[in-house]
């Protein structure tokens, strides 16, 4: 191979004028061409559909709708400029890495290959769609203040629940890998970029499009299947189901590509001296999540593709009446669906284990065991999926095996939990906002994990299946676990990302409101489930009315707490803008040794890593990295590897 | 967010070997993901065959077009072999345009043959039971992935032709191709492997 050196990765040029920018490829053209693509392909699909007699089991032309979505996707990507580079390569032009990094604010509205810009784009997008999903939850709890359907009809209620579930699962899958993974992984491993910068941007814009496509299900009659999309209902449902299938497929592609990009980045772009046993535990969390994403998301994609074929060209993958089987969907979906649970959990482990040593001022206890635990969870997560089918008529002889593997997974999970506790043991803890969220993570995840043991057990699973017990369990693991960890992560890393402090008092108000009302919302739902309240139904036994009103009020207060978070971001990041400094938490991790915000090239020189970044409280510990020449604040003084100013 | 570059700071250049390593690792990971897509079809094949709902796994009139199946497989394997020869030529510092053109021709032929089979060579429709569903779903999905291979080979050929025209020296032209050649080879081998499995399951086994 050649040892020649390519040009510097960042070439700063003069920003073009507004009129020049308007002509290029960006979000505006993406929207225009997506709309155009939808209508053209929808029309084409109608023509094709007319030639296929008796084409579907549904009452509308799914070929037109799905082709419309395909056209919209192509138009969206063309408008954003994603086809320019492949076309130029097809003409034999040389490969390049950089695109759209040099424009000021404009780069946030187009294809940009700066991983930090993409991460911020992800952050805004995920926050928006998270808000949409949260709003659905508020409406659901509003309806459940009455024991019979009131302002939302039963069918619409199902769509609302389905939208909430799918949106949250889709966005939470992207929620950590996208913003935090893309921003932090290159910085933590001493790289200047991700391995595939255009792919990184592609995954973001696919996620954005998928979110809007899912919302479009409302205008296509909704979908009644929940986030699991069970067949044969999914084959027979109205056109809103097409929106579910297409948007989830886009998320599957995006998730797979994000994972691929992160793994490739960590494998090939680590700074000298960053051996595998020195990689920050957050990066390990991202890598294990990425392994799951790369291997599980393709199966989801294939299953969604089969369902789309069933709805359009009359294949019968999931229709038992013509040689198919709905159990095929259950198996394929949960082969993805259960690793998906750990796609949501593992990043949370990575975040809290990264933050704990900083505020405990102690080294991470059992680093290698923690990494092994993460891989153990990832491996076992592929072997448990049939516990979702315990009551679906699977061969009873299979149940003990899947019960055993499901219970087995609590061992590596428990080990990770103990690593956290060991790190906190006899520590002088600083109870900052990020730390409070990390501690809450352990509390919530413990409840979620213990209730999961009951669900892995066949007899108790049979009793609680499809009830609010299951609902409370997975909200404790996903919201109580990942969401708390992610928000803690945002409080921790946002000053690095934007360069501005968040308000500590508002943060603590947010934390206590969220922690208290989260538990007041979801803990009573274990009781509701044990008392027989079923999921996805808007009417319930009147004896549960008082409990449900209490839960609804708590849920609204929980929603309010997230508005405090939003207010904190808007006030401190857009209005107050108080500089955070390069290393406000006195962290030893590599990203905190850089200026805030990080310059576009990340590192002036690629650093040489001396040790893992957890040597807190060790007097003679060497500096984590040797930067060659000191990193400099733009136009300011140089900073030492320890974060001090020279 | 990221700050603009500070005046006067010129970042250290990146080693060009990094991009080549990324491509190969990326291709291997993509091949793994692709394998899992087709594992879903393999699972569907055996699952539906075992369940045989209403005896409609594979009614007697459902027979795949054997001639097309073999022809498509030969084109795919031929394209892969031609590309391998082109890659070896590159490694030896030789030109590779002829072999790349052959690989492109064969890979396009596979696509054309599959489309002809869909349009006129099938004795059954997608609604012909479990096997028919798997057949159409699997082959159409493979076609989509194979189009990716066609793109990669075409890109290589275009780069080779342009480099041969514009590069000052022959070794410079070869250098421009090497990073992508190894990655494309990984992808083509993966596709060829899946094509063999496709042929065995969908065409060979009754």
Radius of gyration of chain A, in Å, reads: 25 Å
What is the first-to-last residue Cα distance of chain B?
Answer: 59 Å
| Oligomeric description of these chains | heterodimer
Query: What class would the helix/strand composition of chain A place it in?
Result: mainly alpha
Order of helices and strands of chain B: HHHHH
Task: Please write the CATH class name of the largest domain in chain A.
Answer: Mainly Alpha
Mean pLDDT of chain A: 90
Largest sheet of chain B: none
For the secondary structure, the number of strands of chain B is 0
Count helical runs of chain B.
5
Text of the CATH class of chain B = Mainly Alpha
Report how far the terminal alpha carbons of chain A are from each other: 40 Å
Strand-and-helix sequence of chain A, N→C? HHHHHHHHHHHHHHHHHHHEEEE
Content of β-strand of chain B? under 5%
Identify the biggest protein-protein contact and residues per side.
Answer: A-B, 81 and 71 residues
* CATH domain fold name of the largest domain in chain A: Cytochrome C Oxidase, Chain A
Helical content of chain A, roughly? 55-70%
Q: What is the assigned CATH homologous superfamily of the largest domain in chain A?
A: Cytochrome c oxidase-like, subunit I domain
Question: What does the model show?
Answer:
The complex is a heterodimer of chains A (646) and B (206). Chain A is mainly alpha-helical. Chain A folds into two domains: 74 residues, no CATH class; 466 residues, Cytochrome c oxidase-like, subunit I domain (Cytochrome C Oxidase, Chain A, Up-down Bundle), CATH 1.20.210. Helix content of chain A is 62%, strand content 1%. Chain A has 19 helices and four strands. In chain A, helix 6 runs parallel beside helix 17 and helix 10 runs parallel beside helix 12. The longest helix of chain A is centred in the N-terminal third of the chain and has 35 residues. Chain A is globular. The N terminus and C terminus of chain A are likely disordered. By secondary structure, chain B is mainly α. Chain B has one domain: Four Helix Bundle (Hemerythrin (Met), subunit A) (Up-down Bundle), CATH 1.20.120. Chain B has five helices and no strands. Chain B is elongated, with a radius of gyration of 21 Å. The termini of chain B are far apart. The interface between A and B is large, with 81 and 71 residues.
